[in-house]
Amino acid sequence: MQDGTPSPALDAAARAFAALGAPPRLAVLRLLVRAGPGGLPMGRIALATGIAAPTLTHHLKALAAAGLVTQRRAGRHIYAAIDHARVRALSDYLLENCCADAGCDRNDAPEAEAIHG
To answer: Quick check: 42 and 56 in contact, CB under 8 A?
Structure first.
């Protein structure tokens, strides 16, 4: 980004963080992270989050457009799952420079306890 043009990594991170800017989307992503690689059927996501099916569809589309979630059909059900590689890359991108100037390990950052509490 030295010439003022955002790098592809910065652009992808901005899209992902924008998608996570709505609390229901963050709740869905958190649920899917906990569900593991197989994901969950949409009905179960709706039940667990209290989000109505049409609204859930809207949120899942936004998360999928940001590359954080994948969807697949299995019979009559649509499953959603996180893209572990993309979520990991986003986390790494965010933390890669944490404490870089302070000379400490990123896990030593005081904010780590507040987030992971």
So the answer is: yes
